[in-house]
Amino acid sequence: MAYRFLHTADWQLGKPFAGFGPERAAQLQGARLEIIPKLADLARREGAADVLVAGDVWDQLEPSDALLRRTLDRLGEQKGVRWWLLPGNHDHYRDEGLWQRLQRIGLPPNVELLLDGQPRELAQGVTLLSAPLKGRRAGRDLTEGFEGRAFEGAVIGIAHGGVQAFGSGDDAGVIDAERAEKAGLAYLALGDWHATKQAGPRAFYAGTPEADDFRTTDQGNALIVDLADADNPVSHRISRYTWSAQQERLSPGEKPDELMDRLFPSGQRLDETLMRLTLTGSTEIAARSAVDEALNEAQDRLFHLDLRTKELSVTADAENVEELLGDGVLGRVARKLAAMQDGPDADEARAALRELTKLARQA
C-alpha cells in the first residue's frame, strides 16, 4: 500500500536537565521544542502527512500551562502535517490531568489525541490502533487488545513501553515483541526506549529525536515508514546536540595532539557536543600536563565535558620529573606519589599528582 508516515516518540518536553546549570539547561530544553518544526520539515519532505508520537511528549505529569501552550502553538504552525499524540509513562492519562488541560486550552485542528484506544482512520484503508497508558505502569500488555479485530486495509499500532523487563514487577507491562505479527499489524510504532532500534517483526522504537543521554547510542532520530516496506523504516538524524561517551587508554610516549585528533574529528561542532570522557592507562608526568592543558581548551569549546581520570596513572621517572618540576622538593614528592599509585592510596596519589601538574603549568 502506498502510504507513508513519520514515527517519533519520547520528546520529553520540559526535561529539567538538572546538573547543567540554568543557562545550559534552558538551551537543552529549547532544543527539544525545536524538534517540532524539524519533524514537520522531514515529514513534508518525505511525503508523510501524519506524524505518530508514541508517548512521552512531555517529561512530567504537570507541565506548566506556558509549556503546553508553546507546544500547541508550534504544532499548529506546521501546515500540511497532522500530529497524533499518545500518552506515555511520563505523561500518562489520568482524570483532570494534562490531557484534559490541553483540551481546555484548545487543540489546533491538526492535533489529534489518542486517549481512548478507539480505532482512528489515518487515510483511506489505513487504520490506527492505540494503547494509551493510564498510569505510570500499565500492569499488563495493552497491545493485546490489537488482536482479534478486523479492518479493511492496513492496520498500524502505536504503544509506549518496553519489550523486555528490567526489574522485578515490570513483567506485567512488557509488550510482546511479536505483536505486529500476532495481530496482523502492518507496523507497530513504539515509544519508551530512547535509541532507534527494531523490537520485533515490523515493530520499532523511533527513539528520542533530541539526544539526551551518554549511555544510549543511536539517539536523535525519527523514522519514515513506508507501508510498502514496513520492515525497513528509514532513520533520519535530526538532533541538534550530540552526546558522546568516549573511553581512551593512554600509554607513555603518546602525544596529546594525537589524542585530541581522535576525540574531536575535524568539522565536529564542539559547541553542540556533550562528552563524557574516561581516560585510563598511564602517561608521563610532562605529557599529563600537556593533556590537561589541551582538555581545558576543549572544555572551553565544548557545550559540556564530563572528564573522568580516576584510573589514569602518571609515570614519573627522574628525567621527566626534573624537566617539569625540577630536582627539589616538588620533584621528590612527585616521584613518591608516582610510586604510591600501585598501593592502597592510589586514588589519593593520582589526585595529588594532578594538582602537582597544575602547579607546574602555572609556574
Automatic annotation (TrEMBL):
The entry's keywords: Exonuclease, Hydrolase, Nuclease
Organism for this UniProt entry: Parvularcula maris
Keyword Hydrolase: yes
Matching SUPFAM superfamilies: Metallo-dependent phosphatases
Domain Calcineurin-like phosphoesterase residues, every copy: 4-96
InterPro entries: Calcineurin-like_PHP, DNA_Repair-Maintenance_Comp, Metallo-depent_PP-like, Mre11_N, UCP033093_metalloPase
Phylogenetic lineage: Bacteria, Pseudomonadati, Pseudomonadota, Alphaproteobacteria, Parvularculales
Superkingdom, taxonomy of origin: Bacteria
Molecular-function GO terms, alphabetical: exonuclease activity
Stated name of the protein: DNA repair exonuclease
Keyword Transmembrane: no
